[in-house]
Amino acid sequence: MLSIGLPHFLVVGAALFALGIVTVVTRRNAVGILMGVELILNAANVNFVAFNHYVDPARLTGQVFSIFVIVLAAAEAAVGLAIVLAIYQTFRTIDVAETDLLRE
Amino acid sequence: MHAPIASGPVHAATVSWLFLIPLFPLLGAAINALAGAAIQKRWGKRANHAIAIGAMVLSCVVAEIAFWTMMSRPAEGRFFENTVWTMWQSGGLIVNLGFFLDPLSMTMTMIVTHVSMVIHVYSVGYMAEEPAYWRFFFWLNLFVFSMLLLVMGSNFAAMFFGWEGVGLCSWGLIGHWYQDLEKAKAAMKAFVVNRIGDFGFIVGLFILFWSLSGVWANDRYVPERGLSGHVKGTVSDAPRVAPGGVKLGPTLDFRELRNQVADESTGMAERLRGMSLWGIPVLALIGIFMFIGATGKSAQIPLYVWLPDAMAGPTPVSALIHAATMVTAGVYLVARLNFIYALSPHAMTVVAVTGAVTALFSATIGFFQYDIKKVLAYSTVSQLGFMFIGVGVGAYWAGIYHLMTHAFFKACLFLGSGSVIMACHHEQDMRKMGGLAKYTPITRWTYLVACITIAGFPIASGFYSKDEILWKAWTAQGLAVPGIGQVIYVIGAIAALGTSFYMFRSYYMTFSGEYRGNQGHGGDHHDDAHGHHGGEPHESPRTMTWVLIALAAASVLASFVGLPMAWTGKAPLFEHWLEPALPAQARVPFAHASHATEYLFQGIGVGVALLGWLVARLLYKDGKSAIPARLKAFFAVEWAIVYNKYYIDEIYDATVVRGSVALGRIAYWIDQNIIDGLVNFFGWLGRSVGYIDAAIDKYVVDGAVNAVADATIGGGRVLRRVQSGQINTYLFGALGGAIVFVIVQYVIR
After folding, report:
1. DSSP state letter for B320
2. Residue A1: per-residue pLDDT
3. CB B625 within 8 A of CB B515
4. Which helix (H) or strand (E) holds B281?
5. Which of residues 89-108 of B touch A (CB under 8 A)?
6. What sign does the CA torsion over B216, B221, B222, B227 have?
7. Regarding beta strands B276-277 and B280-281, do their DSSP bridges make them parallel or antiparallel, or are they unpaired?
8. Which of B190, B338, B457, B668 could serve as B306's disulfide partner, Cβ 3.0–4.6 Å?
9. Could you tell me which residues of chain A have a Cβ less than 8 Å from any Cβ in chain B?
10. CA angle (B278, B279, B280) in 5-degree steps
């Protein structure tokens, strides 16, 4: 019988990461990009928790890290949305293709 | 002979005010140099000559005080010294600016100050119409200062400053009318010829200094060859004091030199006799090189040529510098170093023979000159020759005595000629004179007295000095060649005959007969506004005639200090007076001859003077005799040779002058072609290397730098596209990079 092991979690984490990367890279909507970033962070969380459970269950290092990441993600989302609002006020759009002031 | 004194070491009394004697003329010169032109403009010429003559009077007074102080002392106390400051010090050698008076330099100082003073007074009349009055008196005062430094300097260094100073002043005064090219040339000639002599002086001094160096070993002062050793041994390492307490070793000080050389007990004289340099006795070398210096200053063969040309200067200058004082510096030098010359028969012989040959040679040139000052110039050269006979044969006092009498009578003659020249409106040619006895009685009588003096009649001093010299020459035994003294005597006697002849010739041509100046007047006199050209000759102002009378009187009165021993039974006063200063005097041997012989020679002396006078009288009195013209026509070639001074100037011009110029041309050619060629070659070489260097810099170094810059610019142009501003693109880049990194990790692993 096939039991659920570490590789399964890693595959889920990898899939989440890939989806996040694709979202970040392909989306032109700034809010979409922020959502992709959330996916990537959560992919990392899956990995932390899975490794903690299967490699060193006696301690809670991975769990603690994932808590940190969640806190960080919340802060990041707040800052990111504030930036998006600022961009919107400046450019009247949140399309990242339009906001190319750093070009050359 | 009487007791020889002061052959041992002499000690000098310190007399702190001697420096005043040369100081006053220096101050006078300074005032006239710095403010003379302004003074002349503001207060007139009187102020200029008041300063100059005032300085001379003060100097004379101090000299008189020194003289009488010296007279009041005993013979061994007649050495005065005054050290003003130390000029330099090097090891044991100390050179002071100091003044030293012994009877010899006292005599010179008295002659210089007094003759200078009367000539200053004379110049007031003679130069009255001179625009650059202050300049003349500046040079005259400076000359007196230099001359006093020369005679009073306590060492060779001080003396040499004076020696060069008088040469400089001579240049300035001969060239007083420097706008005239001939006069400027004469000044230059005098200066250059003097420099040649000065070189000899310096060389002689170096050899003397060198030969005194030594070290103390085995209780004796032994010579040490070369100066390097001397430099090593400084004051501390050897007690260079002879048992008698005399300091030994190189010195420039006359008294120290005299003490170690003249005092036989130090062994220095013995040592110097034994030394030689390049195989020649060192004493002869010293004597001869010093004498070369003397020939330059005192116009002896071969360096006499400047003196006749020096007559281009104003007549008071000729009288002061070129007759009475400066030209006697050489005689003074030899007399000052009598203790050195007395040790070397060779040097003595050279001096005496040169003197004799010069005396005769220049006397013959004087025979046929028409320029009155040229006659006197050659006469001066001739009389200086007599002085050198005196100091050469070892009769130092007689040489100095003749120096003194000559200073009086020749100054009188020159000033008389100046008076004549003024009387004739700046005419110097005796053919255009004549008959002046009527117009210028005082000048005539003083000139006659001086002629009698120089010719050697026993009523005036010239007889005593010249006769003593010739007598000493006849009896001399200290010379290197036996019998040479008698030869010198004969040459000297003939020269004395010539002297009498040409002097009375000049007298008769000038003062007897009729005045010839009004016919075709207009010679080459310098063009100052003398007021009454072509008029009657006139007597000179009283400032000039008084001076003439004073000098004529001195010429006669100077006899009394030189009356010969044969007459009085005692040594002449002058000899006795000079004795402390001439330690070698008693040591030079002379033959003993009876008084009858001496009377005979005195008779010969008077005889030649009479003969010269009678011939001159026969030929030239009143300018009536036709004999001179006939003789001149008969001996045309010989006459031309003598009249043209044996073409010596031309010979010098063809050899020495042209030689120097040719040497200069060769040096110029070498400079132009070889030195400049080398320099130019190296310049060209440097420039070529520079070109190559520039090319490398331009194409290689700059090329590399530019290539790097171009590559950077190109790279930037390409890479700037990456900077799109599209966040997605950046993320793509980051992702791609990460993937590549992972792949690389795998591959390398």
Report:
1. I
2. 58
3. no
4. strand B280-281
5. none
6. positive
7. antiparallel
8. B190
9. 21, 24-26, 28, 33, 96-97, 99-104
10. 95
Q: How many residues does chain B have?
A: 749
Residue B590's pLDDT is what?
87
B672 touches chain A (CB under 8 A): no
Q: What is the pLDDT of residues B245-298, one digit of tens each?
A: 777 878 889 988 888 888 877 778 888 888 888 888 999 999 999 999 999 999
pLDDT band, residue B534 (cuts 50/70/90): low
- Report d(CA B114, CA B297) in Å as an integer: 21
Q: What are the extents of the domains in chain A? A: 6-91
* Cβ distance of A26 and B727 shorter than 8 Å: no
Angle (deg, nearest 10), helices B372-393 and B329-336:
0
Looking at the complex, report in whole angstroms how far the Cα of residue A93 sits from the nearest Cα belonging to chain B.
Answer: 15
3-state secondary structure A13-36: HHHHHHHHHHHHHHCCEHHHHHHH
User: What is the band of B230 on the pLDDT scale with cuts at 50, 70, 90?
Assistant: very low
Report pLDDT digits (tens) over B135-158: 999 999 999 999 999 999 999 999
Report the C-alpha gap between B730 and B737 in whole angstroms: 10
CB contact (8 A) between residue B727 and residue A96: yes
pLDDT at B333 over 50: yes
Q: What is the pLDDT of residues B440-451, one digit of tens each?
A: 899 999 999 999
Chain B partners of A17 at a C-beta cutoff of 8 Å?
none
Instruction: Find, among B470, B426, B718, B701, the residue nearest to B602 by Cα.
Output: B470
Q: Which of B29, B289, B5 is nearest to B141 (CA)?
A: B29
Task: Report chain B residues whose CB lies below 8 A from the CB of A33.
Answer: 727
CB B617 within 8 A of CB B504: yes
d(Cα B696, Cα B263) in Å, to the nearest integer?
80
Q: Classify the C-alpha dihedral B655-B658-B663-B669 as positive or negative.
A: negative
Chains A, B: CB pairs < 8 Å: 29
In CATH terms, the fold of domain A6-91 is Helix Hairpins (1.10.287)
Q: Which two tokens stand for residue B623?
A: 């300018």
pTM, two decimals, is 0.77
- Among B720, B725, B731, beta carbon nearest to A25: B731
- CA-to-CA dists, residue B646 to B203, B322, B498, B650, B651, angstroms: 31, 22, 16, 9, 9
Are A104 and B735 within 8 A, CB to CB?
Answer: no
For helices B396-423 and B542-557, what crossing angle results, to 10°? 150
Residue B222 confidence class, pLDDT cut points 50, 70, 90: low
Instruction: Tell me which residue of B561, B588, B562, B582 sits closest to B79, measured CA to CA.
Output: B582
Task: Lowest mean pLDDT of B15-29, B237-251, B388-402, name the range.
Answer: B237-251
How many whole angstroms separate alpha carbon B313 and alpha carbon B310? 6
- Segment B645-674 shows an average pLDDT of 88
Paired with B485 in beta bridges are none
